[in-house]
Amino acid sequence: MRILFVEDDDALATVVSDVLRQQHYVVDMAPDGEQGWDYACSFTYDLILLDVSLPKLDGISLCRRLRKDGYNTPVLLLTARDASADKVEGLDAGADDYVVKPCPMEELLARIRALLRRQTAPGAPVLVWGDLSLNPSSCEVVYKGRLIRLTPKEYSLLELFLRHPRHVFSRGAILEHLWSFDTPPGEETVRAHIKGLRRKLKSCGVEDAIETVYGIGYRLKPLPQASSSKEKQTAAAVSEAWEQFKEPILERVTILEEALASLQQDTLDENYRHNAQQQAHKLAGSLGMFGLPEGSRLAREIEACWIALKQPSESNGSIPIHQLESMLAQLRGLVENPEVSEENATIEAELASLPIVPPDSFLDRPSVSAASEGSEPTAEITALPLPPRLLAVDSDRELTQELQISGANWNIEVEVARTPDEARAAIDRSTPHAIVLELTFSDRADDGLVLLEELAAQYPKVPILVCTVRDGFSERVAVARLGGRAFLPKPIPPDRILATVRETLDRYSTFRPRILAVDDDPLILKVLQRFLIPWGIELHTLEDPRQFWQTLEATVPDLLILDVQMPHITGIELCQVVRNDSIWNQLPILFLSGDRDDGTLHRLYQAGADDYVPKPVTEPELMTRIFNRLERLQLLQTIAEIDPLTGVANRSQSTKELYRYLRLANTHNQPMCLAIVDLDRFRHVNETLGHETGDRVLKRIGTILQQKFRSDDLVARWGGEEFAIGMYGMNQYDGIRRLSQVLEAVRSEVFLVKGHAPLRVTVSAGVAEYPHHGKDLTNLYRAADLALDLAKASGRDRICTATPPVPAE
Length: 809
Hints:
Layout: E1 2-6, H1 10-22, E2 26-30, H2 33-42, E3 47-51, H3 59-68, E4 75-79, H4 84-92, E5 97-100, H5 105-118, E6 127-129, E7 132-135, E8 140-143, E9 146-148, H6 152-163, H7 171-178, H8 187-203, E10 210-213, E11 217-220, H9 224-264, H10 270-286, H11 293-308, H12 321-336, H13 341-352, E12 389-393, H14 397-407, E13 413-417, H15 420-429, E14 434-437, H16 447-458, E15 464-468, H17 473-482, E16 486-489, H18 494-508, E17 514-518, H19 522-532, E18 538-542, H20 548-555, E19 559-563, H21 571-579, E20 589-593, H22 598-607, E21 611-614, H23 619-641, H24 651-668, E22 672-679, H25 682-689, H26 691-708, E23 714-719, E24 722-728, H27 732-747, E25 763-770, H28 777-793, E26 799-801
Parallel strand pairs: 1-2, 1-3, 3-4, 4-5, 12-13, 12-14, 14-15, 15-16, 17-18, 17-19, 19-20, 20-21, 25-26
Antiparallel strand pairs: 6-7, 7-8, 8-9, 10-11, 22-24, 22-25, 23-24
Helix pairs in contact: 2-3, 6-8, 9-10, 9-12, 9-13, 10-11, 11-12, 14-18, 25-26, 26-27
């Protein structure tokens, strides 16, 4: 476990940190509030131990800033101020606990352990995996009564896995959790400690407790008793899917039988033969996914027969018709009466028990997809991903109606529940991205708090914002304790509620993979939905490859899945089209195909494929390959596309995205707003206060811009103190409204600089709209830049639009 200790008393800091390290905690030290803020923004901590009286930025203010910025790590305040009012102020600022100095070390350690337990599953403080137990109080690891002696790092590794039994940790994530900022080793050190931990556990009889997830990292192996439940769930899922797709598969078998009858009557033409070949190919790729590997084998042999029939007539004699007839009869029998379905379901369940848990960054969002699991695959094109869903739980009809009307302006879909029971039913149907909750309903005064506690426990990753008429201090404390992310007292304008929701969603958002799958077989697309959607992946499917390009630009996937053989345009040709484009040529491409010959594989990789998975594909193999590619994609994007100081897109990447926005705006007849934002008098800040202060200011401006704009808006740093924002589907007036929030947020920021008065900064902005102020990026930028000059000439800290607008043609 990694702790940040912010304390300006060197003697106390040394004593406490030494004791914490003896208890196997990793400790980073910060001597003032500003440095504590920088550490908290830069590294991952399990707990923050925070003194109240700190230089530069006091502990209460730092705690408030952390909570305002969406930082959920437990905060333990440590102070000599023991008045009740001081404790109330600290807890109201967002602290989880408050310890008064002097405090016995045993009590401090117990409070730290209690706070860390809240981050994991409730229950006894001892962490247990089968007969293996780890006691954080005594730092002892025991297996069947036998004490296991571990090094401090081995102990910390085991504790990390036991506290997060369902998570996969990459080597980088382990370094983040278990090594301090001052002594970060290389990733090979992690491998060495994992090896040592496994060796010591094995020597005591603990077999294979830590398992490797190929291409991702390490995790605690699920216990054997958990597998029976998994097998039942998987068998049920396979059975349900089979009942859904049995009829379409039988139709394909019928087509093969009709083609055989034509062959026997010598009336088979080339079109009919080719269709039979395609149907056999699809069956070979899909039957194995439904627990019928023997069906896939038969279909592959039948496909080979139809391919051979394409050759000159003298070769036809090598394919006895009775053999083809026999294989088709076996195939129909298998499909109509899959006697081994239970056995195959068990096999698939065993495969499903293989480690395919994605990295932590893929587990922090509800599994909400643009299409539900039961929906039909579609080639429908949407200009941008579907908006996030907000559930408003409130009996105030006037307010909820206004929220639904205003939601369109904020790109938020608002669903309303009038009672707690309606809310539970709505969430059971589909998990929302955020919830706005009133505390008071007609039946019981505490219904709202009961629902808040229930939802916070069941859906910890869904932010719940309380908007209520009950504005007492006790209600605020109760909401904070139960996990509410914001408290909004009524009366309040609907736009203010939606602005807070949007800011909260942007603050808590993590990488949610978006995948486009192109396959002319709707059954394969259905299987992919069953595989991918439960992992929180946003899946878009396409059957007709002729619609590929517009779908690609509309969905903006992080990864592309292609079939090889498709009508009109092959997957290999689509791959070549992507690799020839300057914007899309780095997109990861994974092929799913029933073709396994060396010639096909050579052509795939020659065309630019990143990976290949043969059909029929199993979920563990597919998901492992996908997560491996996506993790590499995130790393490469961070290196090549993100400005390292501010965390927003760099100029090169944003230029590509802006060109894409312009093409979409032209295709769908939509507006697009381009804004140029510039820090006022920034040269003076650098020259007077130093570049370190300037970097702090730029980093904070980047954070504010990311919070104030939609996740599908483009925020980029174009050099120096200049930022560019692209807003697809928004006109200049929408852009000005959003930018006004940015200017207000920047004005409220205060930067403390040693030896100088507190620093306040402002920004100015220029706005241009497509197509009124320009139809290409060069002219739009020129118009926005001229508007920015006008804003600075008019006194700074303001927004100007490009004038006069050029009439649209």
